[in-house]
Amino acid sequence: MKDYSYDTAGVCAKRITFSIEDGRLHNVRFAGGCPGNTAAIGRLLEGADAAATMNLLRGNDCGGRGTSCADQLSRGIEQALAEG
After folding, report:
1. What is the C-alpha to C-alpha distance for residues 28 and 16, in angstroms, rounded to an integer?
2. What is the pTM for the complete model shown?
3. Residues of the domain holding 16
4. Which of 24, 12, 27 has the alpha carbon at shortest distance from 69?
């Protein structure tokens, strides 16, 4: 299992950490943001396919910011998958 950390931009959460093992997400955690929502995202995504999650969450907007915590997670997953 490989651990990743992604510093966010334009959202309340400052950092997202997660692990990927065999193409599946684990331990998704947000530092900051709306605690109930970000905890729920982490629980819902436990064991989810990383690439499918990246595509699903891409472009999700929060209050007209052009991004959201979910969108930032998709960007972090994209970066992680590119790193291998």
Report:
1. 7
2. 0.95
3. 2-83
4. 12
- 73 closest CA partner among 40, 46, 42, 49: 42
Cα–Cα distance between 63 and 61 in angstroms, integer? 6
**3-state DSSP call for residue 62?**
coil
Scanning the structure block, which residue is given the tokens 């490989």? 2
Q: At what angle do helices 69-83 and 50-57 cross, to 10 degrees?
A: 140
Domains: count for the chain: 1
Residue 47: band (very low, low, confident or very high) from pLDDT cuts 50, 70, 90:
very high
Q: What is the C-alpha to C-alpha distance for residues 5 and 53, in angstroms, rounded to an integer?
A: 17
